[in-house]
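Q: What would this chain look like folded?
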Amino acid sequence: MPGRGIFIAGTDTGVGKTLVACALLRGLDNHGLRAAGMKPVAAGARLRRGIRYNEDVEQLRGTASVDVPREVMNPYCFTPPIAPHLAARESGQAIRMSVIARRYAQIASRCDVVVVEGVGGLLVPLGARLNAAEIPQRLDLPLLLVVGLRLGCLNHALLTVEAAQARGLRIAGWIANAIDPSMARREQNLQTLRERIPAPLLGIVKHAAKPGINRVTKALDIKRINEAI
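A: My prediction, written as C-alpha cells:
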C-alpha cells in the first residue's frame, strides 16, 4: 500500500475521533507535511442537491492541507445516523474493502500522510462478515487510539486494545480526551490506563465546551506521532 497513514480508532462513538484527526492534520501541516484526511464510512448526513454531507467528513476536508474529492475520501456515506451495517443494508449498498483500499491508494499517492478516521468503535459491524477493524488491517495502518475519559473508559479502552492485539494491529499510541468534566478520579483512571495500555500516551486533551483545533493540536505530541507512523 503506497504512502504513510494512521488510523484513528475510538473506544466508543462520541469520544473525539474527528477532533483528534483534524488536530493531527493541522499539526502535520505545521511540520511541513502534506496531509490528507479519509473517512471511509460515515453514517448521519444531510442531503443537498443530490450530495450527502457528513459533518465529520466536512471537518476533515476543511482541515487537510491536501484537497481530496469528497467521493474519494468518503466512499460510503449514509443518511440515517445509525450503525453503518444497518444503514448500508437499508440503502441496498454493500460496504466493500476493495473500494476503500482503492480510494486510500488514490489519496496516498497525492500526499505524505493520510489520516484515516474510523466509524464508532473498533469492532463496529460494517456488513455481515465485516467490521471496522478490517480497514486498518487491509490498509496496513497503525492505530492512534482515542480514549474518551468518562465512567467506563477503562473497560472500553482495554477491550479495544485486546481486540486490536488479537488482530495483529499495532497501536502507535493513544490520546486521552477529557470528554466528561465531572468524571470522578480522572487522574487515577488516567494512571491506570498508562500502566495497562502497551503504547505511549501521546496527548491529553483537556475538557472545553468548544474545543478549538489549534488548542487540541498543541496538546498532541505531533513529532512522536509522525515518527510512529
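The chain has a mean pLDDT of 95.
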